[in-house]
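We were asked to recover a plausible sequence for a given structure. The inputs and outputs are reproduced exactly as logged, with field labels preserved.

PROBLEM: sequence recovery
POSITIONS: 412
GIVEN STRUCTURE:
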């Protein structure tokens, strides 16, 4: 991905490209053109939020609605992270929706029918998800069967097992401890104010972490003589990131505080983001998705990497299943319907490529938020479910079409 070289522009004559004549705006637009894949969907997310904020007379950005938006889309965002890794590796997983429902059914059997302590049941459910992903990963990596076929088989198998375990009925409710983890908020702390103090502290710490990470990445890129953003555009990027985090923090702090599931999402984002940027296995995932023959010649153990990618997807699907079942407080045979399509759409909207080798964990979160804001905004303005499907389909088509256009433009 090309970026703007960090060179100080020559002084422009008065009236031509000077800061007072829109020079900074031209620099921003030029930077966005050169980094369209990175910033395109982020800009689209901001545009969609602004559109529905105006359309709903500000209801979209009410603190309660923002909090509900996070909780309601948490399981899709969890699935989108795992699906992004699968797509980067050059594969697809159609079974995650059914596996989500199956793990929810297992959780209900463990906790509701057999009164198992919920922490032990959660650990067993995550192990079940990891095992299911490992089995599918073995057939794909070592059996040589295409991921489409294996995961299609898994989709049917896990859906049938869900019906068998639940005997066609819903089962609940779940223990209060699990409810507090998946639907609860951070506790109150500190002096009594008009805001949630702990959420404010976490937001400020996150701003400091983001700024520090961006500065560190920029310094490392300069040390290796890589292209970086111009200083003014880099500062503008930091201000935009800090402002976005601050706005969300203030909105959450003015309601009940940060949902606990948001902390889980944050941990996943930081952890998987680090792995994909800095860890060896992350580089290998990009390598096998980008050019499998070259990766093999370079010594990448492609079968092991593929196996681990699907094992990880199974574990994240199990986590999403627990979050979804606990949020509804029941396990249902019809749970997880079309979750795999939502996760795949979030990954592609967030910048994944059909050919593999391209995408980021943050992009998966952005893609999931685009879908979540669309769903929430359309519900607030009263758009029917039929038209909602049409609009989301067109958004997915536009995102993939944008990716194809961008690659052709870069290639030319």
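RECOVERED SEQUENCE:
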């Amino acid at each position: 991905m090309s970026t703007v070289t960090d060179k100080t522009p020559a002084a422009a004559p008065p009236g031509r490209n000077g800061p007072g004549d829109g020079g900074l705006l031209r620099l921003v637009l030029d930077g966005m053109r050169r980094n369209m894949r990175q910033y395109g969907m982020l800009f689209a997310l901001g545009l969609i939020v602004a559109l529905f904020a105006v359309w709903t007379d500000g209801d979209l950005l009410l603190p309660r609605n923002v909090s509900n938006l996070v909780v309601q889309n948490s399981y899709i965002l969890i699935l989108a992270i795992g699906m992004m890794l699968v797509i980067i590796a050059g594969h697809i997983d159609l079974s995650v929706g059914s596996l989500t429902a199956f793990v929810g059914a297992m959780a209900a059997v463990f906790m509701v029918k057999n009164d198992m302590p919920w922490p032990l049941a959660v650990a067993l459910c995550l192990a079940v998800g990891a095992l299911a992903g490992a089995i599918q990963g073995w057939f794909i990596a070592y059996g040589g069967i295409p991921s489409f076929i294996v995961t299609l088989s898994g989709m049917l198998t896990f859906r049938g097992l869900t019906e068998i375990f639940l005997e066609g009925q819903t089962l609940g409710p779940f223990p209060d401890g699990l409810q507090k983890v998946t639907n609860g908020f951070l506790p109150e702390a500190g002096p009594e104010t008009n805001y949630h103090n702990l959420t404010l502290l976490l937001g400020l710490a996150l701003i400091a972490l983001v700024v520090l990470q961006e500065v560190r990445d920029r310094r490392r890129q300069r040390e290796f003589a890589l292209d970086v953003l111009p200083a003014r555009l880099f500062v503008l990027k930091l201000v935009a990131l800090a402002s976005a985090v601050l706005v969300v923090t203030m909105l959450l702090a003015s309601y009940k505080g940060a949902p606990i599931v948001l902390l889980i999402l944050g941990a996943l984002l930081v952890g998987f983001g680090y792995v994909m940027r800095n860890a060896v296995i992350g580089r290998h995932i990009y390598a096998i998705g980008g050019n499998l023959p070259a990766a093999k010649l370079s010594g990448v153990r492609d079968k092991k990497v593929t196996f681990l990618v699907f094992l990880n997807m199974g574990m994240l699907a199990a986590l999403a299943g627990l979050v979804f079942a606990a949020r509804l407080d029941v396990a249902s045979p019809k749970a997880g319907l079309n979750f795999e399509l939502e996760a795949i759409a979030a990954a592609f909207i967030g910048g994944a490529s059909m050919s593999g080798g391209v995408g980021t964990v943050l992009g998966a979160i952005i893609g999931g938020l685009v879908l979540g804001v669309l769903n929430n905004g359309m519900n607030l303005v009263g758009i029917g479910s039929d038209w909602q499907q049409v609009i989301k389909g067109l958004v997915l088509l536009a995102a993939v079409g944008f990716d194809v256009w961008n690659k052709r433009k870069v290639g030319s």
